[in-house]
């Protein structure tokens, strides 16, 4: 007979699910000072690992019997250039509403700020039915580099190539680090927060040269604005047809 699900008042004091505190104690016992707990949702676990300890920590997470994170589900790059600084520019935007910026900075963010780039790994333990998010920050912002985990999880190969292609993050020891989504002649890394929305160059077939050539972008710049629900006079009660069904 399956054990009943405990009511909310029996959950851990920190709001985590009953298995999260136990799993976090096991992780911290194995990784010790190499990893630091990150804020996360109540039913999630997230840790940040030091760059020099990344490979050792990943092997421990995979091989320790009480952890057993044998599957790497995803690897993603992150650019924290505008993190906590941007404001939505809408008709009714405020500095306190949902998803607003945490910091109202008067100056533009520094593209060389420490820890601008990071790599996030999503791990799964099938044996223990547990998930873990692991983050490592790139020490050098000008040339963001971390160790490749392809020797630990072979499935990281294409994920790391995507992060290299879109964010310019280099993975030391990767067997075939080259672009995977953009064209071979693509310039720049399109997911970086300072990459222009219209791109740097555009590709076009040249009938005289009989090949694809790159030229300066001719697209008119535009600003993407999120949708905002605004007042619409067409739905005023006084303008409704009295004969229309309510």
Describe this structure in words.
This protein is of the alpha/beta class and 246 residues long. It has three helices and nine strands. The chain has helices at 19-31, 54-63, 156-167, and strands at residues 35-37, 46-49, 71-79, 117-125, 130-137, 145-147, 170-172, 201-206, 211-216. The protein is extended and about 65 Å long. The protein starts with 18 loop residues before the first helix and ends in a 30-residue tail after the last strand.
Number of helices: 3
Beta content comes to 15-25%
Overall pLDDT score = 81
Helix content class: 10-25%
Largest sheet: 5 strands, mixed
Q: What structural class do helix, strand and pairing data support?
A: alpha/beta
In quaternary terms, these chains amount to single chain
- Looking at the structure, what is the overall shape? extended
Order of helices and strands: HEEHEEEEHEEE
Q: Spans of 5+ residues with little confidence (pLDDT < 50)?
A: 1-18
Q: If you compute it from the alpha carbons, what radius of gyration comes out, rounded to the nearest whole angstrom?
A: 24 Å
Strand order across the biggest sheet? 1-2-5-4-3
Count of extended strands: 9
Report how far apart the termini are: 52 Å
């Amino acid at each position: 007979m399956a054990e009943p699900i405990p009511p909310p008042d029996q959950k851990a004091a920190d709001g985590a699910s009953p298995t999260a505190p136990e799993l976090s104690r096991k992780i911290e016992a194995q990784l010790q000072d190499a990893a630091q707990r990150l804020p996360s949702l109540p039913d999630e676990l997230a840790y940040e690992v030091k760059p020099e300890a990344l490979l050792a920590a990943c092997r421990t997470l995979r091989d320790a019997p009480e952890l057993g994170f044998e599957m790497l589900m995803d690897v993603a790059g992150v650019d924290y250039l505008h993190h906590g600084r941007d404001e939505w520019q809408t008709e009714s935007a405020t500095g306190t509403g949902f998803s607003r910026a945490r910091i109202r900075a008067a100056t533009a963010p520094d593209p060389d700020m420490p820890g601008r780039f990071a790599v996030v790994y999503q791990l799964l333990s099938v044996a223990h039915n547990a998930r873990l998010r692991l983050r490592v920050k790139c020490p050098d912002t000008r040339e963001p580099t971390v160790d490749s985990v392809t020797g630990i999880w072979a499935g990281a190969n294409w994920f790391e190539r995507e992060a290299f292609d879109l964010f310019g993050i280099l993975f030391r020891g990767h067997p075939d680090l080259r672009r995977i989504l953009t064209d071979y002649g693509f310039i720049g890394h399109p997911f970086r927060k300072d990459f222009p929305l219209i791109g740097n160059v555009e590709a076009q077939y040249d009938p005289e040269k009989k090949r694809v050539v790159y030229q300066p972008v001719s697209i008119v710049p535009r600003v993407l604005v999120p949708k905002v629900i605004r007042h619409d006079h067409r739905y005023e009660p006084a303008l409704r047809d009295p004969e229309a069904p309510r």
